[in-house]
Specification:
The complex is a heterodimer of chains A (about 250) and B (about 250).
Chain A: E1 15-23, E2 29-38, E3 43-47, H1 54-61, E4 69-74, E5 77-78, H2 84-90, E6 91-94, H3 98-101, H4 107-117, H5 122-135, H6 151-163, E7 169-173, H7 181-193, E8 197-201, H8 205-211, E9 214-219, E10 222-228, H9 229-234, H10 236-241
Parallel strand pairs in A: 3-8, 3-9, 6-7, 7-8
Antiparallel strand pairs in A: 1-2, 1-4, 4-5, 9-10
Helix pairs in contact in A: 4-5, 4-6, 5-6
Chain B: H1 16-19, H2 22-38, H3 44-60, H4 65-68, H5 76-88, E1 93-96, E2 99-102, H6 103-129, H7 132-141, H8 146-175, H9 186-213, H10 230-253
Antiparallel strand pairs in B: 1-2
Helix pairs in contact in B: 2-6, 2-7, 2-10, 3-6, 3-10, 5-6, 7-8, 8-9
The chains are: A alpha/beta (about 250), B mainly alpha (about 250).
Main location (chain B): membrane
Organism (chain B): Phycicoccus endophyticus
Protein name (chain B): Cobalt ECF transporter T component CbiQ
Chain lengths: ~250, ~250
């Protein structure tokens, strides 16, 4: 175990998970007491092999799943039934397949969906939609239908749908998957310009190094390492133990 | 929107019909079709006049004929039935060229063809001038229950995604030398259909997750309310009023 990334912070963590354990109704235990703190302004990579429980963990962050044991707190607000709407505004999750995220007939409707659920209407809503689309550089696509966009454009719009809710933390599930190298780089450039805390679940280790100063490794339902991304990825023994590999020819 | 490969019906334009609010058009369409159906079957001239009105509406959209004509194929089963009808119906018979056909059957067949074509043309007029998204908004505005609006909205959004999945599965089958030539191929096709259903179901679950994550609480928010002036309503209902007038007049005349 390496030094926790929260050393030296005095702010309230955006995300504060304490001893989160979860078993699916079928009996399969996915999480065994996860502790995770993410502070405002951080960009954190959540790494781990397939089946490590990453997606299960992500679904705890906005209360879709509730821990069997332990607690989840978002900027001081505990994730409970009565806080659910506010928690979901604060934690914006961008799912892996943009076709799942974009379910309305046009981009504009889709980006408006979240803020409209929060009660925004009229000019305020339009402004919010425009702001979110502009933040990811696709303001010109507002009236298009999602299925007419390229995959890279759809991924960006998916991020805009969440940004429109002005979240405190953006949780990205495999943001670089299925992107061609140019779109992948463009997305990285956009993510760097966003002034929001980011938790990025990924297999793409070079992407993690590029964007996140801190990384957390989740393996078999527990956090096995937490520290500066470069140091973690340079630890060959740790990497091998948890089935993490850098691409051939890539060195830290 | 409207120029992409998936947007099969709607054609962008700036005609009167394009500009009418979608809910007015939808009410106008349904009322018009009901009016046409209410015209007695033997009033062929009245039906022909209404068909001419429908043709006029299509022309008003300024959509090229090659875009409209293939859409009429939807009427084919009815047309086939109409052609068969005079030969199988009973009752007094009349000579039609070299063959003798049923009088009542012939009357019904001509009425069926006229009413069917009129209805399809009116529906095509609606479809080419209304964006799928606006159709969904119109349904919502007309107080259709939310679940039905959502189903319509998801259909608009996902029909291409599912069709694409189906196409990929077909390519994958064909790539491994499969061709559906005999009954023996049916189990494979059935398994494929099942797989597609499961995938769509799972997508539904993931979409629901994404909706819940963005504050979905069971109510579809109305973000851009529709408005219509009395003039819009008058314009939109004109064909329906004409059809209703025709139906009443033709019924009285008998």
């Amino acid at each position: 175990m390496r030094g926790g990334g929260d050393n030296g912070h005095v702010t309230t963590p955006v995300l504060d998970l304490r001893g989160v354990a979860y078993a699916y109704p079928g009996g399969h235990q996915a999480l065994f007491g996860v502790d995770l703190h993410v502070h405002p302004g951080e960009r954190v990579a959540l790494l781990g092999p397939n089946g490590a429980g990453k997606t299960t963990l992500v679904l705890h962050l906005n209360g879709v799943l509730r821990p069997g044991h332990g607690s989840v707190t978002v900027s001081g607000l505990p994730v409970t039934e009565e806080n659910l709407l506010e928690v979901r505004r604060r934690v914006g999750i961008v799912f892996q397949d943009p076709d799942d995220q974009l379910f309305m007939p046009t981009v504009r409707d889709d980006v408006a969906f979240g803020p409209a659920n929060l009660g925004l209407r009229g000019a305020e809503l339009d402004a919010r939609v425009h702001e979110a689309l502009a933040a990811v550089g696709v303001a010109d696509l507002a009236d298009r239908a999602p299925h007419h966009l390229s995959f890279g454009q759809r991924r960006r719009v998916a991020i805009a749908t969440v940004l429109a809710m002005r979240p405190e933390i953006l949780v990205l599930d495999e943001p670089s998957s299925n992107l061609d190298p140019a779109s992948r780089r463009e997305l990285a450039d956009i993510l760097r310009t966003l002034e929001v805390t980011i938790l990025m679940v990924t297999h793409d280790l070079p992407y993690a190094v590029e964007l996140c100063e801190r990384a957390v490794v989740l393996s078999e339902g527990s956090v096995v390492a937490d520290g500066p991304t470069r140091e973690l990825l340079a630890d060959a023994a740790l990497m091998a133990r948890h089935r993490l590999e850098l691409p051939v020819g890539f060195s830290i | 929107m409207g120029s992409g490969p998936g947007e099969h019906l709607h054609v962008e334009g700036d005609t009167v019909l394009h500009a009418l609010p979608p809910h007015v058009k939808l009410v106008g369409l349904v009322a018009f079709v009901l009016g046409v159906v209410a015209v007695p079957s033997h009033a062929h001239r009245v039906l022909a006049a209404l068909l001419a009105l429908a043709v006029g509406l299509v022309l008003l959209t300024r959509v090229p004929a090659r875009h409209v004509l293939p859409r009429l194929a939807v009427e084919t089963p009815f047309a086939v039935f109409a052609v068969v009808l005079p030969f199988v119906a009973v009752g007094p018979r009349v000579a039609l060229g070299p063959v003798s056909v049923s009088q009542a059957g012939l009357t019904a067949a001509v009425a069926l063809l006229l009413k069917g074509t009129t209805g399809v043309l009116a529906a095509v007029t609606f479809a080419v001038t209304t964006r799928p998204r606006d159709l969904v908004r119109a349904l919502q505005h007309l107080r259709l229950p939310d679940p039905l609006v959502l189903i319509a909205s998801f259909m608009v959004r996902y029909v291409d995604v599912v069709a694409d999945q189906l196409r990929r599965m077909r390519v994958a089958r064909a790539s491994r030398g499969f061709s559906a030539r005999s009954v023996r191929a049916w189990p494979v096709l059935a398994a494929g259909t099942g797989a597609l259903f499961i995938r769509s179901y799972e997508r539904g679950e993931r979409v629901h997750l994404a909706m819940v994550s963005r504050g979905w609480s069971g109510r579809l928010p109305v973000t851009a309310p529709l408005e219509a002036s009395p003039r819009d309503w008058l314009l939109g209902l004109t064909p329906a009023l004409v059809a209703a007038g025709c139906a009443v007049a033709a019924t009285m005349a008998t």
